[in-house]
Amino acid sequence: MATPNYNYEKRQRELAKKKKKEDKLRERDARKTSPDGELGDNPPMDPDHASGPEGDSPESGVEKI
């Protein structure tokens, strides 16, 4: 049976970590340079039109006296 090559596995983990970090930096720079400050994936929520999980307004579960 072959013995595991720990140096190879460690190097692969380091490369994956480095790639992930570079991707995050690239994405952060893209957000900074975009006109809206975001990539447009998540539009800002309007608190007047926010709804809970049932589609009701957040205050609908609160009893009003």
Number of helices: 1
Helix content: 40-55%
Taken as a percent bin, the fraction of beta residues is: under 5%
Task: Let me know the average pLDDT.
Answer: 77
Task: Give the terminus-to-terminus CA distance.
Answer: 75 Å
Q: Based on DSSP secondary structure assignment, what is the total number of beta strands?
A: 0
- Main beta sheet: strand number and arrangement? none
Report the C-alpha radius of gyration, rounded: 23 Å
Instruction: Return residue spans where pLDDT drops below 50 for at least 5 consecutive residues.
Output: none
Pattern of helices and strands? H
Basic shape:
elongated
Structural class: mainly alpha
How is this structure best described in words?
The chain is an all-alpha fold and 65 residues long. 43% of the residues lie in helices and 0% in strands. The protein has one helix spanning 6-33. The model has no long low-confidence stretch (mean pLDDT 77).
Quick take:
This protein is mostly helical and 65 residues long. It has one helix and no strands.
